[in-house]
Amino acid sequence: MATEGGGNNFGYEQTLLCGQYSRDLGSFAQYQANQLKSKPDQLFDTDGQTKPAVGFWAYWEQCIRLRDIIFHKIGEDWVFLALLGIIMALMSFTMDYVIEKCQEAKIWLFEELSFSLALQFVAWVTYSLMFILFATGFTHLVSPQAIGSGIPEMKTILRGVVLKEYLTFRTLVAKIVGLCSSLGSTLPLGKEGPFVHIASIVATLLGKLVGSFRGIYENESRRSEMLAAACAVGVACTFAAPIGGVLFSIEVTATFFAVRNYWRGFFSAVCGALIFRLLAFWFKDEETITALFKTTLRTEVPFDALELIIFAGIGVACGLGGSLFILLHRKIILFTRRHKRMSAFLQKNRFIYPGIIAILISTLTFPPGLGQYFAGQLTARRAINELFSNITWTTGQADDLEEEAILRHWNPPATNIYVTLLLYVIMTFWMGALSNTLPIPAGVFVPVFCCGAAFGRLVGESMSTWFPEGIRSGDVVRKIVPGGYAVVGAAALSGSVTRTISTSVIVFELTGQISHVLPAVVAVLIANAVAHFLQPSFYDSIIRLKRLPYLPDLINTKQDAWTVFVEDIMIKDISYITFVSTYYDLQELLTNSSFKSYPLVDTPESMILLGSIQRFELERLLWLHLSSNQTLLNDRKPSSHTLSPPPSPGRFRKTSSPSIVRKNSSPKLPQPIPRFVVTKVDETGTEFDGNLDEQDTIPAEPERKEMKQKLHHSLVSPPHFKRLPPGLRPSSFKRKRNVSFLKSLNLKDDTDYHYDTLQLPLRSILKKTNSESPFLSRRASTGDLRMDGDLFYRDLAAKQRKESIVEDVPFVFKVKNQYARVLE
After folding, report:
1. Radius of gyration of the chain (CA)
2. How many other β-carbons are positioned within 10 Å of the β-carbon of residue 27?
3. Helices 417-435 and 352-364 sit at what angle, rounded to 10 degrees?
4. 740, 804 Cβ separation under 8 angstroms
5. What's the longest Cα–Cα distance across the chain?
6. Which of 107, 191, 429, 738 is the most buried (most CB within 10 A)?
7. What is the pLDDT of residues 436-450, one digit of tens each?
8. What's the pLDDT tens digit per position in 153-176?
9. What is the pLDDT of residue 358?
10. Sign of the C-alpha dihedral, residues 404, 406, 412, 416?
11. Is 614 left (phi over 0), alpha (psi -120 to 50) or beta?
12. At CA 506, angle to CA 504 and CA 510, rounded to 5?
């Protein structure tokens, strides 16, 4: 009933399903406002004035008021993105400082133990070993989801897949601590991939913890926009490269990028990169805000046009090298998985594999040992700075102490620069692939970046040796710049491994110069083209190895694809079931195939698809109907001792069967055959005399609990005999069971009895879709479940007999070429 006026119901009237409002929403609001205005002031404040806050609460109210003004004037998105960039810049700078101090501590410890070579070796190996083992144990205990790069998981999440525990606070702690420990061990590992994961976690937690952002980013689409911006911030804060960071995040995480998110990524990345460089200027005695790897390459005429051929060759070689790197990484992982015993042993003893790898790499990089021949004492940051240097190493001339240190690292007395660079490329290549298989937070960008820079430097130094005076173009002679070749090689190899073009932009922001922009872009494009035909990207390879639920990219189609029809690619020879399928067909289908679902069609001729049935449903159906505890044979009414040949099997019909069989001299007309009554006929339909003995005895009726036992057990156990009244014969089933018992006692054994397969149509079961199964409820025991299921499906089959369109194939006993067929 409708409520008139402006009562509390506001014109609400109750209907059958749901209520409705009879008044307009505007009148509701106006009425409510008038009611609030008419209330006395005592409802709000007894004194007529609000009590002013004092102390801390006064400052808190001012902060809240200022926050509301900023959000109203600027907007929540701008504040959120700026706050995200600032937080990530602080975290990146702090982590870099901790990692740098850990690496310097290893070098300091090595130099302090110079009086003993053995102690130096033990300290060098033990230092890396302890950091790797700590990272392994901490990550496993706190959050195993922090293992690995993080970019493959973010690529999957941005596709709409929900990965549990990947964006939680526990994962953030494990990622930060594990990454600092793994990079502090000086193993060839990177930071970029894990930091993208860290930025995504921070963005998620920031949207949940801050109340002002909670309602904004609870929507699924807004959360994906937030994560896309966080990926850009993660790359930008790693190398202080906002432009390359945005482009890199788009290439490696998104297949289809919404243009509306472009400004979000740029704004947040610029905020993060700016704060990151300001912190370096304030706390690291930098002269100004400069690039991370500052270079002094020649900018007037950096390269000759003929050198573009060499740069293209670097692109081809880096494309092949990137594909080989991805293949090597995947083969190592598959090798450990293929050997089941070794894999199980390493999983049970999870510190053995990281410990072996840490000891192996630390031993090879030991400076007085093999490490002196490929600059094993240098960290990744220092190695990149020296590889990008603007001096030519082959001349052997140094103008200052810094250049002398560079030549001392890369030109040891026992070898030359070419051997050192070649060994550095080879050792960094396979050690980077091996280190990325460890169960710790680690990235791949920095190792392949260093490897590519060394390869480019090797080509540049070779070119400077072949053309010591430079390349002549007309009357102008241009000197070779080996540092430019190192920049091109670093961009090409890292681009081929990650399958991105934005690495050419990242190297410009890292070096602070764009003198070699054209050679770098050419080499990166060629390297990507070569690697595309050989291997997937490194992150896609990890997705396949981890079997993440990720949809692959749509491949480019040729013009012939427009003429391809579905029938050309579909699987035509499929397994299916019909309404006329028997249990034998069903058993053969499940035995010879392993599909999880099967199509259901009307008939094999029409092939009209009606639906699908799960495999476990069919297996349960077979178990219920073909289990050995069913009572398949019942007694029947009195019939003639001599019958004519039985007719063809009839349809399902409801029949009643008494417990005994009486003799009757008058034969009956042929009757349709049900399933559960037995008599004996030969193959041609003639009479078979089944007199067993003059003494007619039958076993007593078995109890209900005996039906739960297996059939062969009931045939062996001794039955209880009782005398029949005069003129009566035992039923067929009881006579057969009596013979089986006598056979077990070796008293009378002249026949061979065994069972044939029971074949029944499925239509009576499949059409009963709206029936409730009593055995689906929880039972006290498995025996009750079996018995109730058997009874249910037998009753269901009896009720559906008239609906069946297929004749039953009866249950048959074989008795010395004679058949006991089920008759009514």
Report:
1. 41
2. 13
3. 170
4. no
5. 133
6. 191
7. 999 899 989 899 999
8. 888 888 777 788 888 899 999 999
9. 92
10. negative
11. beta
12. 120
